[in-house]
């Protein structure tokens, strides 16, 4: 009998997992409570290591022409206006098949996989469908699905939770989500204003250090392909969502960052809480976690979606071995150990460090951080080491060493 796998969550991690398992010939069903790929404005950066994995799955070249190729990224001192350091991934062409970051919004990526490749290899994607109850037993998992008020009970050999930070799957298995939530929230603003035209020395990916209000600024193509610049700022102590997202709040932040005549033309804005958390385990019996259901982090460095896709590739390989009888189910514990190490030691550690670097208020420590960045960028070997870690290449190597 053909092995059946349920994946809860049709985001980029769930769909990559579905694609990788479907290409191995397994019966894969993906359920998503939303009505279709959500046009949210979250992750948009695909690192070289991730692009290599997508290339192996046969979809790398498909998406590259749709995104913005960003070989360079910069660190700025917002106080002085100086570009402190620039790192150029094109110098890593001897190590990376794709020596750049692809700026490609996750909702577009998800739509690509769910609409093009799902039909091609027979993956069933059920939108507007929610997994409301998950019970596992010795030889499978029973899932209760709800669609338009009607319930249906199905049986699967394994279930994968890729359903985000508030994961129903993780909660159903009583798996602790260890970590913390930042006091401040993050404000994301997208504008049609072309910073690159005004500042051609800016890269497509920029990090601005400022003890009072740091900023991330990066470019994406946007819905119409003409280009948007996204800016991310921290909220102030006591600042309400109403204040932050008001016309005055949005315009004030952007005008302080880059003064110009007239208002900024805003495409969208939102505010969200930010966590640094990792599940205590990524496996409980026949239920497995990947992506945000297993780990969440702040977005500085663009590591969350990439780490999740790395989970999906690792998991699909090992689960495929188990389902074909080539490996014992214990190899799924190895998946948990490997990917949890990558999440804790690299994604969590690096994103926490990135935030501290940008927000540092002690003048001496801040000056030292900026000097270290400048020196690293100026030294070819240190620059390569910096880019390996930032691209999650080191995390993959460390995870692979776990036995």
From TrEMBL:
Pfam families: FAD_binding_3. GO terms for molecular function: FAD binding; oxidoreductase activity, acting on paired donors, with incorporation or reduction of molecular oxygen, NAD(P)H as one donor, and incorporation of one atom of oxygen. Gene3D superfamilies: 3.30.70.2450, FAD/NAD(P)-binding domain (3.50.50.60). Residues 5-348 form the FAD-binding domain. Its cofactor is FAD. InterPro entries: FAD-bd, FAD/NAD-bd_sf, RIFMO-like. The keyword Flavoprotein applies. The keyword Disulfide bond does not apply. Keywords: FAD, Flavoprotein. Signal peptide: none annotated. This is NAD-binding protein. It comes from Gluconacetobacter tumulicola.
